Amino acid sequence: MFFASIKILIVDDNLDDVFIATRYIKKGFSGVALTIDDAASLAALETRLDVSAYDLFLIDYHLGEYTGLEVMKKIRTRGIQSPMILLTGQGDELVAVTAMKEGAWDYLKKKTLSVDILCNTIRHAMEFARAEVLRKKTEKSLKESEEKYRTMINTTTEGFWLLDLNFKTLDLNESLCKMLQYTRKEILSSPAETLITEEKQIAFKGALESIIARGEKVFETILKPKNAHSIHAIFNATSIRNRMGVPVKIFAFVTDISKMKEAEETLKKSNKALKVIDQMKSDFLSYASHELRTPLTSIRNAVAILEKGKAGPFNETQERFIKIASRNIDRLANLVNDVLDLSKIEAGKLEIKPSELALGALMKNVTALFQSQALERGTQFELEIAQNLPSVYADSDRIEQVLCNLLSNALKFTPKGGRVLLSAQTEGEWVTVCVSDTGPGLSPEDQTRVFDRFYQVGDVLNKSIQGTGLGLSIAKELVERHGGRISVVSESGQGCCFFFSLPVCSERAIDMAALENAIRPYKKGSMFSLVLLVFDPEVFSHRDRSPSDSYDHILDLVLKALQRDSDLFIAQPSFARIACLLPGTSSLNAVTVRERLTQYFSLSTLSIQDIKIPIPMIMNPVSYPQDGETGKELIEKALLTVAQH
């Protein structure tokens, strides 16, 4: 994006740093009309803001007795929405996370600052800000266009067109003449369809014929003015009938919606640009979390050695500092893990490895982890597990992650003397887990948004409750990936109850989990398609093996799962098709597998609700890396193949 001019305010009391930043900006934005001001104090900042408006702010984290976050708040209280970039001499990732949550575009360390880093960050921030401004202007323009359209209809200032049944003009108003840039006489002497663009004339006549038959119709078309570009228009047309009910004329109100169409197109482009920028932020999250993990692990190991006394004895003060460091390392590790999980979810790479899980034992282990924390807080922590609680089919590590998140939140929000209860009971083929507390509860608004990414309950500005706002959204994703559901019940001042469900470990649960990873349904008209993933194609490529030996278990899996969960069908299909994905398979081997699958499935049917559905095999396998690098790409390719057949 080209910038003709940029006005920047540097808020920093270190003149050397101001000089360096100014030099970098001028070097990186040569050819751009730059205005770079500086403010060395809060008073100077207020003075600058009173007389000037700025496109971007560079703010030092330390400004006398104030922090950069406080400076940001001062600027925001004036209603200024320009992007802000925080600068600091010492890197602190917790401060970085806080700054981003407070609305900073980015957080840069002065020691590693360069022309490219600073100017690229400024450029990205400006691009995002301008795209956001354009989006808001476009939305405003669209809204104004719609309001104008309604006003025109209400005041009948839009075009009025009266036609006979042969589509010749009988009467019109001045607004239509202005719209078409023809005189009244020229329009009266011309067939109506000649005033419509050629590609729309057939559809226009068809719409008018429909009005004669049915009485009224609202449709869009494109007008062809005399000396201007084509005009997108809406026709609100009705037939006029005589006393016998026979149609004799057609009248229509014609409204120019070209500006609305242009605004819609501009909005689409703006949204596309915002999606690109959002992807850049997602990529940054993934990169940053991976880069933080390695040094964090080293620091954690080093502190663990110190805690165990392997590096020698420490006095009480030193031990206290080591414990503080250990707690903060754990907090930072949780933040990094949340960001890493989020990046995996967005990339579709979050792995779930379910197996038979003794949920009761896991709950006891997790409870033990939080007992000391509950004692420190003076909170009553209880565990209730129903007798004969069955095993569930779930990923132990991921369910422990969900439990830890819910319990951590419950303890954080429960005041001293309160109560936290972890319980589980069986409900049919599901086990329902509940985490309840006697904390302040959630407002109705919080309950609708508590599982949203980055959403935090209550007053996050005072920092009394810290975190990323990602934990519950990740927990929701993990539970739903197991086929379960998570919800919250709460009243303000009455505490919260978070519920989530997991499938009881059974043949059905295992089949459904396998089906979730192996089959993707696709509905089009009367056809229902299944995309079947085969991750061990070599087993099916041997010509000396009977087809039934290799494929019976695949078809059985499909039949069992569909018979037990007919909700997979949107409607009763007349036939089904199966597309086969063969990741990592050679082209030649894929053809062999396709032939043998075809041989078997061509003789088979799916029996759903006593309806036998034939399975014609698609003779175009999706296979090997050329068709896609990831499972998601392969599935999309297969669905496209299915849709085209």
From TrEMBL:
GO terms for biological process: regulation of DNA-templated transcription. CDD domains: HATPase_EvgS-ArcB-TorS-like, HisKA, PAS, REC. Keywords: ATP-binding, Cell membrane, Coiled coil, Kinase, Membrane, Nucleotide-binding, Phosphoprotein, Transferase, Two-component regulatory system. GO terms for molecular function: ATP binding; phosphorelay sensor kinase activity. It is an enzyme of class 2 (transferase). GO terms for cellular component: plasma membrane. The keyword Ribosomal protein does not apply. Residues 217-269 form the PAC domain. Residues 145-215 form the PAS domain. It catalyses: ATP + protein L-histidine = ADP + protein N-phospho-L-histidine. Gene3D superfamilies: 1.10.287.130, 3.40.50.2300, Histidine kinase-like ATPase, C-terminal domain, PAS domain. Residues 287-506 form the Histidine kinase domain. It is found in: Cell membrane. Its EC number is 2.7.13.3. The keyword Coiled coil applies. Residues 7-125 form the Response regulatory domain. Residues 128-155 form a coiled coil. InterPro entries: CheY-like_superfamily, HATPase_C_sf, HATPase_dom, His_kinase_dom, HisK_dim/P_dom, HisK_dim/P_sf, PAS, PAS-assoc_C. PANTHER family: HISTIDINE KINASE, TWO-COMPONENT HISTIDINE KINASE. NCBIfam families: sensory_box. This is histidine kinase. It comes from hydrothermal vent metagenome.
